[in-house]
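dumping this here before i forget
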Amino acid sequence: MKWIWVVLLSLLSFQILAEEEEQYSQTEMLDRPLMERYILDELKALRMDQQDLERRLIIQITDRELDVADKSLNYSNITVTYFFYIIAGVASLVALVGWQSLKEIKHNTKEMADKRLNEITMSYEKKFGALERDLKRKTRIITENNREIEIINEVHNLWLRAQSAQTPEQQIETYDEILKIRPGDLEALTHKADAAMEINEYHWALSICNRVLEVDDSNGHALYQRACAYSRLGAEEQAINDLQLAIESSNSLRELAADETDFESLHGNPRFDALIETTDPV
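structure:
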């Protein structure tokens, strides 16, 4: 009998469990639509909050833009008003001072400008004047140098012509042309005196040598030519004195004097012989 009760109890237990499971399934099926409805309501509420937030932001931005526009308009109004006041003040000042003051200002400004321009003009005139004088001086120097070069070339050609001349007369003519270009040229005068000695114009040669020695009393060539002239004229002591001075100025004239035909009359004179034979100590 006990096992029958056990079986009955088991069956009852199974039935109770089946009923509970069926009841639970029905409850779960009933609760599912409620959850979906809750989510949909939350989404709707969230969307409405977002729309409300967007509307409030738009209102705030619009208010701020209106506030900025109002301030800008107010600033522009104030600026225009102040500018009008400034113009009115300047106009009043001009009207108060009068047009005469403006004329005086214009006149004074013109005088100051003219004065400054005159100062600048004078300054540049002085600078240009100095520059012009300097240019003229340099131009004159260049011209003189060019002329001197021309003279040097011309004199050089004349010296070449004198060296190639066949007769003393031709040489004298050439030396005269040199002296026309360069008056008082000592070298040309001494060579002219030499040519005068060759044509036996002793007094003329003596006069030329004296002209040279008046300028340069130690000119060895002139002293030598004058000694030759004195020797030809018979003034032996004066000839020996000039020859001694000439040898002292240029020792090379000693050998030339030993073979000089103009000194033939002096050979045998002790002073002359001692003069041409003396050698400088080593």
